Amino acid sequence: MADHVVVIGLGRFGESVALELMATGADVLGIDIGEDPVARMNARLTHAVQADATREEVLRQLGVDEAEYVVVAIGDSIEASLLTSSLVLSFGVPQLWAKAVSDAHGRILEQIGVHHVVHPEREIGRRVAHLLRARLQDYIELGGGYALVRTTPPAAVIGRPIREIHVRRNFGVTVIASKGSDGDWKDVTGDTVLADGDEILLTGPIAKAERFHLK
Ligand code: ADP
C-alpha cells in the first residue's frame, strides 16, 4: 500500500491525484513552484511546499530522496518534468509515476526509466470514444488487446443460469460480476441468473467485450 506519496506539480492532474490519495488515507507531500497551487492545496494535503523540483538540493531537503512513491505531474514545462524525473530516478526511488503531455514526452520519460508513464488526455480521449461509440457505462483498456467493460446484459444471457449459456465459448468474453436491483456487486458464478436492468462487468478481447451487450 502506498501510504506516503510525493506529488510534484499541483495542476489539475496533480491536484486530483493528490486529493484522491488523501481521501484514501495516504499522507501526501505536494510540491509546486507556484504560489497559487500551494496556497490552494495547503490545508488539503499533509504538506504543501512551494519549491522548484528541478533543484536536487531542494528535493533532498524535502526528503524526496527517501520516498517510495513519487508522482511527477508537471506538464507545462517538459524540461522541468524531465529534469525532475531524472533526479528522482537518480535517488533510486522505487516507484516513479510521471504524466506525459505528448507521445514524444512519454517516450523520453520511458527511455530515462520512469516506471509508470501516464498519458491522461490520450487515455481519457480514447476511453470516451469507446464509451460513446459502443454506449458502454465504463471501459478500461487492459493492454494486450483486452478490455474491462461495464454494461448491461444482452437479451441472449438473461433469465437462465450463466452455466447453461456457455458465455465464454459462445461470445468469447468472461462475465465477472453483476449488480442487481439491490445495488451490490456480486461475483458471477455458474448459478447466477442475470435479469433485465442488471449491470455486468466483463473482460475479453476489445471488439468482443464492447459488442457483447448488443447480442
Ligand atoms: P494540468 O494540465 O494538470 O492542469 P500543468 O501540467 O499545467 O497541469 O501543471 C503543472 C504544475 O506543475 C503547475 O502547477 C506548475 O506550477 C508546476 N511546475 C512547473 N514547473 C515546476 C517545477 N520546476 N517545480 C515544481 N512544480 C512545477
Automatic annotation (TrEMBL):
<feature type="domain" description="RCK N-terminal">
    <location>
        <begin position="2"/>
        <end position="118"/>
    </location>
</feature>
<dbReference type="Pfam" id="PF02080">
    <property type="entry name" value="TrkA_C"/>
</dbReference>
<dbReference type="InterPro" id="IPR003148">
    <property type="entry name" value="RCK_N"/>
</dbReference>
<dbReference type="InterPro" id="IPR006037">
    <property type="entry name" value="RCK_C"/>
</dbReference>
<dbReference type="GO" id="GO:0006813">
    <property type="term" value="P:potassium ion transport"/>
</dbReference>
<dbReference type="Pfam" id="PF02254">
    <property type="entry name" value="TrkA_N"/>
</dbReference>
<dbReference type="InterPro" id="IPR036721">
    <property type="entry name" value="RCK_C_sf"/>
</dbReference>
<dbReference type="InterPro" id="IPR036291">
    <property type="entry name" value="NAD(P)-bd_dom_sf"/>
</dbReference>
<protein>
    <submittedName>
        <fullName>Potassium transporter</fullName>
    </submittedName>
</protein>
<dbReference type="GO" id="GO:0008324">
    <property type="term" value="F:monoatomic cation transmembrane transporter activity"/>
</dbReference>
<feature type="domain" description="RCK C-terminal">
    <location>
        <begin position="134"/>
        <end position="215"/>
    </location>
</feature>
<dbReference type="InterPro" id="IPR050721">
    <property type="entry name" value="Trk_Ktr_HKT_K-transport"/>
</dbReference>
